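Lab meeting notes turned into a lecture example. A postdoc, R.K., suggested we walk through two folding results consecutively so the class can see how the record format repeats. The first protein's sequence and structure tokens come next.
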Amino acid sequence: MCALPISPTARCRSRLTSTIDRCGRRVAREASALVAAASIIVVSTTAAQGAAPVTVVEYYNATLDAYVMTGRLPEQAALDAVPRDFRRTGMQFSGVAASGAFATAGDVRICRFYVSVPGPASAFTSSHFYGREGIDCEALLAQLPSSFTYEGFDFTVANLLTTSPTAFPSACPDRAPVRVYRLFRSNANGRTSNHRYVTSSATYEAMLATGWSGEGVAFCVTTASDVAQAPEQGFQRVLTGAAPNVSPFSSTCSIAQSGTNYIGAEVEPYLALNPSNSQHLLAAWQQDRWANGGARGTASAVSFDGGSSWASSRAAFSQCGGGEYERATDPWVTIAPGGVAYQMALGFSGQESTPSSISAMLVARSADGGVTWGAPTTLIRDAGATFFNDKNMMVADPQDARYVYAVWGRLLTNGGGPAYFARTTNAGASWEAARSIYDPGSTNQTFGNQIIVLSDGSLLNFFTDIIRTATPASARGSYLRVIRSNDRGQSWSTPLTIALDLGVGVSDPVAGRVRDSRGLPSAAVSPTGEVFVVWQDARFSQGAHDGIALSSSKDGGATWSEPVRVNARGDVAAFGPTIAIRPDGTIGVSYFDLRAASAVGALTTTYQLATSSDGKYWRESGIESAFDITQAPFANGWFVGDYHGLIGHGTSFGALYAKVTGDPNNRTDIVFANLAEGTLKSVPPRYSATTAAGVAIESAWLREAALQAADRAARARLRRDEALPSSP
């Protein structure tokens, strides 16, 4: 984030609704229950200032979603020097420099401790604690826990006339009539806990309304300024609409089509980062999902401030979005260096594998980074029962804005499915004709094609190779494979097998089938050139359930490491992996799992982020609170998306995902979560990536089960009518 020696945040171990006073007394009574009662970011220094008036200033760090308060002039100067990381909120109040042995009668000095508290894997490890002299400071110093470092007094303010922290509103003396209110937000969904101090009662009430806990009046000061404002929400932003405006499309659009349509349900989001501007993000998703295939259209949003705010937009792929086709699906976005944005989708009409079927791969270009979109370019269009285009992706070369690559599967009625490819070499002014770059032959099919670009301009295309009928090169089975192009897509190598694909998919005997990411690999390249790929695989449980497998290559895809499991819980099903790598080389893998699911009823699902600096040792942090996936749309299984968005930028990861709301009239919303460095740092426990038992890999029944699951997953993406579950 910046080069300053900034201490990371910490979370409380329990839900704190007490004031600093009460927290200090609790610490004195029981050091083992010690809690960091503040979550702020400050530059550590203990240099005392002279006995003179000071102004205590508040800052906000959008990346960490944390409020900062300091009365130390050197710290203020340091924070002001990095405005992209810390900005003043407008809240400040008067105080006096803390000097001498005692405060003036009627005043109280505010001490500060640096706190480092071990916690679970999703906790933060450090923070600062502010307390009152005579109440907190002495109690802490008398039994100074190993996790507390005393940093002296920060400033002096007037004492409350009413000292009880629960006596709200507390009385302030006439000479210091301004109340400074304190609020607390406990850690949740992987973010830090945080105390905030405000002097505006309107701000205080606004924060209470968004879930912060009010802790009454903390200080009394002579003067203050505070602009009334809603609380910052840099950690999470809901990008989609709320009832009754749950869909951007007309209520009368597509009403003649058959099937169950989930108005307001957004699924399958993808997220792109501008390689030349980490503040520029682009998102897209399916809008108003149909149970029997596709959506009423796609929608998108763009951010130019790292995800703090978003502006909605829409490309004209479907009729509801102003385009030609009845439905659209599989949205994918990418941004070229310089900021030109591209959005790709599958547009289709009629019923797949019938004479009425029409399918097309479409690309829209945005010269302003995603604010507005030009008319789509058609890369391929097939009419009739023979072909159906499906499961597309695209990527811009991060070093050369002229090149953008698109890939997808072109499915045949007999079950075949070669990988098709198209590219532009002139920044979208024109596209070369689509062509096959790998055909497994007969009734075999590629699925989940995904291209990444290496630093030298070479391309790697990952895919699941579903071999239903054995060939001279491949036995019957499902394989994770890769092909390489050294000339920017003009020619391609023969496929190289990374691993057997042994995913079996996710289902529950009571709740039914989850439509997961079975057969859809996700790949990324690190700043050092090491390539990583993740996918669902049941080898680690000997076929009992899927976990998240990872393999890596240090030689540009020529050889690959043995797959290892990177999800923290090996005893429950995990699915939907997405990988991203930060500029510092930290690997992030997001995924869903069923650790919170019960034996009956709701299929409770959690969303996690595993991070590692080396691919061997991992830590896990929660992204989203648990939700019941059976309240999501049903589309050949409970469905939040075949894929999800994850980027690495600065010292953060950014996740874009569909959140189940619990509202049957607006089943899912798209959320962007900023997972900052502070939210991901933790102390042990950490866990090691684990390999699979050889017996699982050699198991004939598991290979056949994985092939059947791959075949089922591939076919499930096509539009087809299917009865909905009786109890959605």
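The second example is placed directly after the first for contrast:
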Amino acid sequence: MNEHRRRVGGWVRALAGVALVTAAAVGLVAPAAAVPAPAVPVSPSPGAVLDVYGATSAGDVFYNAAGPEPQGSVRRSDGTVTSLGVTLVGRGEVGPDDQLWLPAGAALRAFSADGTHVDHPIGGTGAAAVVNEVRIGVDGRAWFLDKGRGAVGSMTLDGADVTEWPAAGSGTLSHIGKGLDGRMWFVRTNGALAAITPSGTITNHGSLASAVEGIVSNPSGLYTAVQGRLVRIDGAGQATVVATPNGNVGGIPLESQGWIWIGTTSISPSERIAQYGLPIDFDYFDGLPQVDARRTSYAASRQGGFVGTIGGQLVRYPNPDIGRNVVVRASVVEVKGVRHLRLTGTARTPGGQALSGTFAVRMEWDRFIPDGFTYYENASKQIGTMTISGGSGSLDVAVTSTLLAGTTRGFLDHGRCCGIYLQAPATDAGPGLASRDASVADSNGTLELSSTMQWLDRMNGRALARPMDPAGSVYWAQKLAGGTPRATVTKSIVDSTAWRRQRVASAYQRWLGRKPDPSGLEYWLSWLKTHTTSELDLALGTTAAGRDASGTTDAQRGKHLASALRLASASADAFTEQLQAGTPWSTLARSAYFSRSAAERRMTDLAPRSSFTPSLAALVAEFQQARDERGPLVKALATMP
């Protein structure tokens, strides 16, 4: 293998407890009461914008400041400020020698907390070296990317020994991080992933994506941020998405003593830091409770946690157990004829401390907009409330028509279904918090009513012209599952005040062409308890108002009678001729009402015809004998598919 190597006498300092450090501009915002007491003294220039690059084992912090302080500075653990004399640039980290290692063109620059720095040239011939990132490997050497030469290199921390290995491939070298197997992993701007051993053997591992935000390692794996997702990479280079934060990943992931912290962006300009406990196959933590619109940054601390800025202040978060993790899981179960979303929620800190709270349960889905284009928009609504006590809670939400109101076709297929998340509003005591989404599509790929609930909705729609209310549908579905006959359920609906009210209203509309006035509605509602439906229709229809609702000519009256009985226009002509021949309106209305054609039309309107429903002749015969449609109606609705 071709390599460029420079060896000078020296020794390599042993690695002791190195934490991988990266720096990224992210928002770190919290209300004053929620911010931990800063272990690092407050900056004397309030409102200064600080870029934090890392901290030494003694607690000295390297940073940039805008304002009265020098741009490149060190905040010493005793509170004093030391100028480094230059602006800090590039990506690097604090090594076990307590020096900040950064790119410096054709050299690596090592800053000491006393304000001095030493440049360690890379040397070599050919194209000029241009270092763009430095990291400390598990072998205790400073590893770097040289985008000028397209090479990966390493250097002892005294600068005495330097080696570079050409890294062939397209795309500019962008990020490098250590793997715990001794290899260093690096990516290019086009997402190409590769690993290099301490001896210089490079293995390519395919491609991630163009939007890669740094590489960090942890005992559970190697991590990077790819297109807004936190991704774990195994030793074979296989990438697995392990977390999708609430908001795109906006900063570089960093590792510190068993935790991964990343910056995430939500609604501009708000940003936050998210905390992930490891292993992180399903856990997501909101690390800091609120966001400051001013530019801030953070870096891992060798003392644990991280150091960062809030406004013009330097703060240290030594305890990783400051976050809150809320997780919701959902399944679809059917119990006693009722399909439910069975939700379980947990809330705890990364360290396992149980939390409590009340959360709104929200469902979101993609709604189709029929405007001539293939277009969907996101829709959401609250579907319940979950109380989490002692770290856990649960909730069953019945899948009813109300739950699915507004969805396409009254159900959600797998392509548009759907997310459940828990959400708590912000209060004076703290910020709002939301869990990540949990899918609730069932094993069949759809979220829809149970077959029993679908029949209840169809039956109620025929009887009352609306779906059954959620409480009623759950109650009757459970009754049906327990053995109650459909006819019993249907009869209870037809015998209800709601059905009589709807029936009086429809009779007014049929015969008088208007809605009933309140006093009339209450009168006929009570009257119908002891009278037949035919008596109701004829009591209204044989009045002068019922006769002249559409006009006072015989032709208008004949057409009105045919329309009220839902008969063809030929019947209207026959009715007109009878009126012109002197037949009284009341006589004609009664005769037409009980005619076979009118009775068949009325019975046909009761329910959809199927092989399960009684024959039309049987329904007509029962109606003509009882002169009341409620008996046939119950039979038709109870047997409808």
